[in-house]
């Protein structure tokens, strides 16, 4: 009995960690290294209830924001839609053509040779928008309209063998775009970007992220609402009105100079004294 209890106590956190979910639905930094809540200006359903902003990134806090492993038994969205009460942490606003950055914890599912992991699989990473105002029944519903295929990360399997250098190079497509994975394989941050289609009808829509790690395990999903505006000017007006920055996302690798894996200050190419 004692052994059983001990196993349970050790086993539960591991079980709770074997999943993933979207933490931020409008993140300011693409391809970033570390999570920074200050860079998140919008959140998925019930983010406050899950304490997504303030808890240590990647820890589940007793809840996991995901589709359960039995989509035939549980709804597509872990939390039912409730726009009036589900957004104590604010809802996203997007504009047509916008590149949106979202992020998620890695939960040990990255192939990176730097920490001797090469065969962690990635199978499918998709973004959908829901046709209509009601949550679709299930992952195969034709109410789910695919708006982006975010690619698949490289990993070794069967006859497929990538070089260690390739498996440790970022950015990557798919789930495993987590440059600091090996520092904390469980709770490291991975980011994706997707684009709001130009032909989307402005208005409030439900967005659904779907990740398949391996075909034998049912997909993981996160659902959220966002107000889609026709232009950036209208989106900016809305964000200003709700106390948020109107900045567009930036790319980590465009604003930082990395030398031998370390961030260095931009080097001035011309020495002003010598060039006189
Ligand atoms: C955005 O995501 C797409 C799809 O995964 C990828 O091909 C592209 O490189 C990403 N863009 C940037 C700037 O990272």
TrEMBL record:
Keywords on record: Signal
Signal peptide start and end residues: 1-18
Domain of life per record: Eukaryota
Identification of the protein by name: Uncharacterized protein LOC118424847
Gene (name only): LOC118424847
